[in-house]
Amino acid sequence: MDQSKKYLLIILALITVFLVYNYFLYTNKSNYGTIRLTPLALKGERVWLHNNCNACHQLYGLGGYLGPDLTNEYEKKGPGFIKAMAISGVKAMPKFKLNEFENNALVQFLKEVSQTGYFPNTSAKIKTNGWVVLHYKNSHDEK
Questions:
Q1: Which H/E stretch holds residue 132?
Q2: 116 CB-contact burial (10 Å; exposed 0-12 / middle 13-18 / buried 19+)
Q3: In sequence order, what are the beta bridge partners of 6?
Q4: Contact in structure between 73 and 114 (CB atoms under 8 Å)
Q5: How far apart, in whole angstroms, are the C-alpha atoms of residue 44 and residue 76?
Q6: Has residue 142 got a pLDDT over 70?
Q7: C-beta of residue 48 within 8 angstroms of C-beta of residue 65
Q8: What's the predicted TM-score (pTM) here?
Q9: Three-state DSSP class for 93?
Q10: Nearest 5°: CA angle at 69, between 67 and 73?
Q11: In angstroms, rounded to a whole number, what is the distance separating the alpha carbons of residues 92 and 58?
């Protein structure tokens, strides 16, 4: 077997291993735990996605950078502030024509997101082996 065929077989083997590894890594849902959003919050998530809120805002630091991170906005500003911003808009944020149900659903979604954790997590500790220990809301143990 000539040298080029050996390299081709090695590359094909590596690609196969990579694809199999990624298939099992990204289709395994055991690390997600139980997602517990109320039906109203699930509708609020749909409002969030339908209006493309993540293009400008982040949840846990993931999303756009034009607007603020909204992970803990419910706790910081309250439901009235969130409703007012969604209805009236401000600066670069457009006015959304949400009905009362959609507005309440969006607020419920942000409320439940806020209950899941802190962002940024300033109490995180980095161990000497490189692992990060986080403190979660409503939990006394570190994970």
A1: strand 132-133
A2: middle
A3: none
A4: yes
A5: 19
A6: no
A7: no
A8: 0.67
A9: strand
A10: 110
A11: 15
